[in-house]
Amino acid sequence: MSVHSEIKKITTETLRKMKFDKEKITMLTAYDFTTAKMVDAGGVDAILIGDSAANVMAGFETTLPITLDQMIYHTQCVVRGVDRALVVADLPFGTYQSNPEKALESAVRMMKEGGAHAVKIEGGKEIEESIRKIVNAGIPVCGHLGLTPQSIYQFGTYKVRAKEEAEAEKLIADCQLLEELGCFAVVLEKIPAALAKKASESISIPTIGIGAGPDCDGQVLVYHDMVGMNQGFSPKFLRRYLDLYSEITGAVSQYVKDVKSSDFPNDKESY
């Protein structure tokens, strides 16, 4: 039995202890009550209400269009379904980059209205003052470095980040800065595995990887990708545990057939 499996609620401190004890951290996304309930029951340590909701829930090409109000709504839905996991919510694009006051206001709304246990924001040195302001207000912050999808138009591509030495050095420096500022964890997205290992060893707060190799302190995947609801999206880092797209479309087709042929509802299914 794992060290923390008897713990009723996972906290940021639990995650720190897991890193210290060399126990891997598991994180998945969820955006609604029903999914959150299943993911939590499955034993995941943390649930991320990612701004990836813009893609998988709303059908946008990037994460940029989703608003703070929409993210708060998704967070409220998830929180109602969770008994045990730590609930971390993304602050969406434009709600924290421009000035620290706005960043704090956004984070406070996410905690008070959304019911999140922590917030996640993208970037390092560039958003130092925003992180400082939020942490000083007593709000737990998870950082996010490497491929930062909110900056997609700046990068122009979703390819692996920090392959060049200068960017790799900045990533390590940003990891250390995030720890100094009081972040409780940092997500590392789509960076070389060797760099993720080096970054993880350079700080005492947990790293949670997505496309960042096996040496991070934990892993995160988007739930819809992991259970195979998205057909078109299959990056190298993704392991599909189910093929729900085929299962669900098959079930729907069978339902259509049964109704059309008057097989459903039958006598047993009628009052």
TrEMBL record:
Keyword terms: Cytoplasm, Magnesium, Metal-binding, Methyltransferase, Pantothenate biosynthesis, Transferase
Family annotation (Pfam families): Pantoate_transf (PF02548)
GO cellular component: cytoplasm
Keyword Methyltransferase (UniProt): yes
GO MF annotation terms: 3-methyl-2-oxobutanoate hydroxymethyltransferase activity; magnesium ion binding; methyltransferase activity
Classification via InterPro entries: Pantoate_hydroxy_MeTrfase, Pyrv/PenolPyrv_kinase-like_dom, Pyrv_kinase-like_dom_sf
Binding site for 3-methyl-2-oxobutanoate: 51-52, 90, 120
Residues at the active site: 189 (proton acceptor)
Localization of this protein: Cytoplasm
The EC number(s) this enzyme carries: 2.1.2.11
Primary location recorded for the protein, binned into one broad class: cytoplasm
Residues where Mg(2+) binds: 51, 90, 122
Protein role: Catalyzes the reversible reaction in which hydroxymethyl group from 5,10-methylenetetrahydrofolate is transferred onto alpha-ketoisovalerate to form ketopantoate.
Subunit relationships: Homodecamer; pentamer of dimers.
Name of the featured protein: 3-methyl-2-oxobutanoate hydroxymethyltransferase
